[in-house]
Amino acid sequence: MVNDKYPLHQAAACDNIAEIRHLVKAGANINWATEDGTTPLHWGAQLGRSDAIVALVQAGADVNRGAAGGATPLHCAAVEGQIDAITALVKSGADVHRGAAGGTTPLHLAALSGQVKAIVALAEAGADVNRGAEGSFTPLHFAAMHGQAKAIVVLAEADADVNRGDQYGDTPLHLGAGWGHAEAITALVQAGADVNRKGRFNRTPLFLANTKGNTKVANILVAYGARG
Length: 228
Fold this sequence. Notes:
The protein is about 50% helix and about 0% strand. The chain is mainly α and about 230 residues long. The longest helix has 9 residues, at about 15-25. The radius of gyration is 20 Å and the shape is elongated. The mean pLDDT is about 95.
């Protein structure tokens, strides 16, 4: 939590521009980090304080500074769906492709948490919708694993490859089937996912659904032409 030990963080969290300017003028370190590596800009981004973001950047805040795990302020804004913060950060030079732990980009985190507007904003800012993180997981893989059907729809509309395999050849449909996410499965198939695509060990999405006991997902896949 932000506390009196970190007055600039507190000012950013409260969107207190006057206090930010006062502290900076008094010599506060604009990139001072808490124990977990978060700077005032990270706090402003996470809470959607767009005015504070502008003030901090103007005072010299590092817009691409990584906290614990490498998360930048843009990662913080993306996972929380803070659209105004995303816009302010991108305009200030935030790297939409910067990877945090495991190579996850802000778009991966927006997909994971189902932040549809954030996905759209990041894609419009040039984020690669097919970029692979560790394991070659794309944002669409992340959305499928976590059952984020609406995120799948907007990613597909942004030209995400619904049949892109991870490092083992498993597509988002394989992951969605294995985890039993019926709505995600439907969204993927309607976006053009191959229901009979073979992934790791030549397993199909239907095989994974049946193996995991995900009967509802298996029935959906069969209805869309899955075999075996």
